[in-house]
Specification:
It is found in: Cell membrane. The chain has 383 residues and is mostly helical. Helices cover 80% and strands 0% of the residues.
């Protein structure tokens, strides 16, 4: 099986996060242009991830049928269509619709990117590759927030959507030229209902899905609420975008530490549990310093711990579902992104950054206390 270029997979897996962080600085401008409140503007994030969840399911299922490469290209095309609609929208409801279409398309970068990695790698090697991907993705907040800050300052939210459409077009061209097909032939016939029932009975799937949802809430809760927090503290959009350096540094440090830990230790449960504890400490720090720019210091700790934990959870979550990686990834992604969409909707309503992070970290700590090993039996698709 031909191994896809890691630089391309990194770009495709970074794309959903860049697409969201570049949009974060534009939230206040969006609120001003359409005359809506901050919690209504933040609603676009909740809607985005709910549609993203559906996209993860659909594209993950399709990539087992039509192939990884074809599904990836179709998703990127869909994302570009959503951005084009956002550019011409003259009503906030149309912006929401555009975000739904864009989110549905952007999901390919996450679910199919991970599926391709699971096609090519396995075991400790897969965990190491996920760590490398995590270190690459670490620059996403810098790219997204800085680009979003510059674009919003000079061209408003429209500049952001133009840039996103151009990015999708670029990835489409490179994927068409460089992305090979990695779908194993035995993934053609899968009973989705049987797979869903099997996964629903697997307690580790639910715990890992909730863990990943909370890990993402810790990050995207910041992106949804922090722009208005910084605005309240008197900082400009550009100044808020500089926070991407702190988050990227934390993510990079976390990925580097995790890569070292995975090479030295086999007890991934303990690594995840300790990381969740660090997330809780950092979240409490953000709450205490919520009226100061210094909240970025404990936020760095949150992101660092996140960078340590999430590759280990993602790398092992579907270890027993390798033969149906695309469909299993679709169902798994649907679970945790729906959880994230609901959680972001609640967080956006209350607009309390510290409280959101603390609750998410507490749930993660509880889930990490007893994570069962994934060795109960491998799902066998219908032949």
């Amino acid at each position: 099986m031909k191994t896809p270029p890691l630089w391309l997979l990194s770009s495709l897996m970074m794309f959903p996060q860049v697409a969201e962080t570049i949009y974060s600085p534009a939230l206040p401008d969006l609120a001003n242009v359409f005359g809506i409140s901050s919690d209504t503007a933040s609603l676009t994030l909740s809607v985005y991830f709910s549609a993203f969840a559906v996209g993860v399911f659909v594209w993950g299922r399709l990539c087992d049928v039509i192939g990884r490469r074809t599904a990836m290209l179709a998703g990127l095309l869909t994302y570009g269509t959503g951005c084009a609609l956002a550019i011409v929208a003259n009503d906030f409801s149309l912006v929401l619709l555009a975000r739904v279409i864009a989110a549905f398309g952007a999901a390919v970068g996450s679910v199919i990117g991970q599926t391709i990695l699971r096609d090519v790698f396995e075991g400790p090697e897969l965990a190491k590759v996920f760590s490398i991907m995590g270190m690459a993705v670490a620059i996403s907040p810098v790219l997204g927030l800085l680009a979003g800050g510059v674009l919003t300052t000079h061209w408003g939210y429209l500049g952001v959507f133009f840039a996103l459409m151009a990015s999708a077009a670029t990835l489409f061209v490179f994927s068409a030229m460089k992305l090979p097909e990695t779908k194993p032939s035995f993934t053609q016939r899968v009973s989705l209902f049987s797979l869903a029932v099997n996964m629903a009975k697997d307690l580790s799937i639910w715990r890992n899905a909730l863990l990943i949802a909370m890990f993402n809430l810790l990050l995207f809760g910041f992106y949804a609420i922090a722009p208005f927090t910084f605005e309240r503290l008197g900082y400009s959009t550009i100044e808020f975008s500089y926070s991407g350096f702190a988050l990227a540094a934390g993510s990079f440090i976390g990925g580097f530490i995790n890569k070292s830990l995975v090479q030295r230790h086999n007890n991934l449960d303990r690594i995840v549990a300790i990381s969740c504890g660090l997330m809780l400490v950092g979240s409490l720090g953000v709450w205490v310093l919520s009226d100061s720019i210094w909240l970025l210091a404990p936020m760095m700790l949150v992101v660092t711990a996140n960078g340590i934990a999430i590759p280990n959870v993602l790398g092992r979550a579907l270890a027993n579902y390798r033969d149906v990686a695309g469909s299993a990834g679709a169902l798994f992604g649907l679970m945790y992104y729906l959880m994230l969409g609901v959680a972001l909707g609640i967080a956006g309503t209350f607009q309390h950054l510290g409280g959101t992070l603390v609750i998410a970290a507490l749930i993660a700590v509880i889930c990490s206390l007893r994570i069962p090993q994934l060795s109960r039996g491998v799902f066998s698709p219908a032949k």
